[in-house]
What does this fold into?
Amino acid sequence: MGAVKKIPMRRCVGCGEMKGKREMLRILHTTEGETVLDVTGRKNGRGAYLCRSTECFQKAVKSKGIERSLKTAILADVYESLEKEIEKFAEK
It folds into this structure.
């Protein structure tokens, strides 16, 4: 008998839906104080997960879900750069 591998689940800060960790994008607040998109999902720092859609990103910005998850304030120019990066990875 083969062992069933457990899939780590994460909650989207935009829509609140639970999905597999690999299906989502991670926004990271590093120890240096930067807020970046973590494509690998392995960098050190506090993370917030989003679905791969711009709609979820917009919901998270409007409800300040990303700021709450990262426990820090985020500037408007950081949101703009994150939105451009997320559009590259968004599912069509």
Q: What stands out?
A: The mean pLDDT is 91.
